[in-house]
Structures are given as C-alpha cells and as structure tokens.
Amino acid sequence: MSQPRLNSPTDIATCRDDFPALHQEVNGHALVYLDSAASAQQPTTVIDAVARYQREDHANVHRGVHTLSHRATELYEGARDKLRDFVNASSRTEIVLTSGTTESINLVAQSYCRPLLQPGDQVLITWLEHHSNIVPWQLVCEQTGAELIVAPVNDRGEVERDQLRDLMTERVKLLGIGHVSNALGTINPLSEIIAEAKNLGITVLVDGAQGVPHMTVDVQALGCDFYAFSGHKMYGPTGTGVLWGREALLEEMPPYKGGGDMILEVSFDHTVFNELPYKFEAGTPNIAGTIGFGAAVDYLQSVGLENIHEHEKSLHDYMVHKLVDVDGIRLIGTAADQASVQSFLLNDIHPHDLGTILDHQGVAVRTGHHCAMPVMQRFGLPGTTRASLGLYNSSDDIDRLISALEKARQVFA
Ligand code: PMP
User: Fold this and answer.
1) Which of 302, 324, 352 is the last residue of a domain?
2) Which residue's CA is minimally distant from atom 5 of ligand 1?
3) Number of folded domains in the chain?
4) Does the pTM of the predicted model rise above 0.90?
5) pLDDT for 413
C-alpha cells in the first residue's frame, strides 16, 4: 500500500515542524505521538499567543477601563468570534465558553434538562459514549426521577440504528450522542440520526470532542440543538471548551453557575442576569487558554479541515492495513466509517504492559478503558491499546508503531 500524504508532499513535514513537543527523544528514541484523542500537541502559534498575552496583555476581561483590560477583552472575545465562524453558529451569542466538553454537557444536563424532566421521561444515549456523556445524564435522572436509556452497538462498534429508532419515543426528552467515539473511532451518521430525533421533537446534544479536530462541523447544517467540544483535542490549551446551543433554547435556560460577569444587577432581593452568552459564564474565565483556543482555530483553518480529514483518513487506512498483518492483533472497533482512532489487543498482553513497552521505544499510545467503560464491557474487555492520529502524524509514525508492536510480541513470546 502506498504511503499516504497530504495534498502536497511538503505539507506534512511543514505541519510537523509547527509542533515543538514532537521534536524530542523519549527513552532514547524520537517521539512518536499517537495519543491525540486524549490531548493533541500544540503548535507554536498557540503557545506564542498564550505567552504573548501573559507577557504583554494580561488583565481581567470585560470590567476594566484601562488599556490592558481592553486588549485582553478584545483577544478573548475575538476567540469567541473565531469559534462562531469555526462551527458556523448563527450568532456569537450561541458560543458559551466553558472549561471543556465535560462542563458543556453538565451545563445542559443541569440547566436545560433539570427543570424539564419529570418522572417517566427519558434521556437517550448510546453504548459508545464517553463517561462525560453518561454521568451528567445519570445525575440529572436521579435528581428528577427520569430514566436513562441506552441504544446498543453491534460487533463492529456501530450504533444499532433500528434499535436506536425504536427507543426514540415521545417519552425521550433529549438524545445525547457522540460525533466520533473516542474509544473505537466510529463516526456516527449524525445528520440522519438528528433528523429522525428532530422529527419526533427530541432535543439533541452532540458530544463533539472527537468530531471538531477531524472534520468540518457546521452546527446549522447538522440540525442538532447543542454541540459540545474541547480546545485541547483541537491543538489548543487544556481547560477550554465550547457549548454551542440554539439561541432560543439558551435564552430559556436558567444560569448554571452564579457569580461575577453573569449578572447585570445584583441586590440582596433580586438579581438580573446578563445577556447571552455571559449568563452562563460566571467568574473570571480561562482568558489565556481561550486566546490560545482562538489561535488553534486559526491554525486548523490555515491547514484546512478538508485536508486534515483526507490525510487522517488515508493514514488510518494505512494503520489498519499494517496492524492486521501483525501476528496476534485483534482490532476492536471496525466500523465502516471510522476517524483517526484504532483500538486493538495484541495476543493476551495486558494493554498497560503493551503501552509501557511501546513507551520504552518512544511510541506514545493510550491504554485502558478510555473513559468509556460501558463500551469496553460491551466487548467483554477491561480495556484496549489505542493509537490515535493527529494532523502531524505520518506513515513513518505508523511504521514505528508496527515495529514497536513486533518487538513487544517477541518480548512476551
Ligand atoms: N467526550 C469525548 C468523546 C472525549 O473523547 C472526551 C475527552 N477524552 C470528552 C468527552 C471529555 O472532554 P474534556 O475532558 O476535555 O472535557
């Protein structure tokens, strides 16, 4: 199989050069980073944007009259504009800045669902979900007497569409579904699933943590109601994220947290809440991180989501093609449509042992349950080894993974 490349042969080398962390040795070997699904490395432009703010512009946002505060506010709100454009939200007021996907989903559970749900109502999710898209719904179901129901997946790791459809009844008040499974790489056919749910009047939240780094996302075209994502999966800083929500829904929702910035007026008798999106942004936010998040959006757009998608898709095909030739490999997750992630087992080697042996050879992968214990249980496994790709990976990285696996196989023979 020929080695995949970006559109032009120089692109891949250029991108890789933008990421300083990739240019180091780990345990005496050049680092091969195959853990971007957990957290992606950051390009120099992101690191520099954060450092510049810290060095020259640091001040609190929104409340200051002085120049530094104006500059900080401009940079921070500029990031919101970039994020609006990035997911094609119809208004910047629909971009709520959060600490990540987890907070975004908890916000919807507590602010949208908690006042709405009654005993007898249901929240529907799938077996593929990350704990962030399970536990917040469990909590709100316990608080309200509603029931959490789960659509099963098949042996390839695809959601069983007929059963998902059967579970969509008038009792379901919200469907929470991942765009891409972080454990198995399955890309859900979101447009079709969302259309089915919306036909029945079901509100849909998409966990987009693993979607936005790998493909163009247009929230208006998708037709969902909420879309949650994290900055650090898309080459930005940790502790940053977005909840995109339809304005009409966000308007109706009560604040999730109280504090500074989310108010217009406070007395001991009464508080008038701020307008969107600030109603949901209590307290001093992660200013530096969000500025870096904006720089990450610039970076992704300069490389081009279409280019990234094509590159990662051919690289994933190459990885699967090479993996299946390794004696004793069992792929976990073989959906027809997969993005950038491959879970596997090698003979009966425990994933943690395998991950350690790979690390000794400079190859960074993820091992364990990937914060998706139910889907691991679905496959009867405590965990897997997972290699996940970013835009900076190349076929050389896959070749290094394969030779490290061959070595591990010999060690455990
Ligand atoms: N959902 C998915 C699919 C994820 O992969 C992750 C991160 N592993 C999350 C949610 C949670 O993201 P965060 O920890 O950034 O809030």
Assistant:
1) 302
2) 182
3) 2
4) yes
5) 86
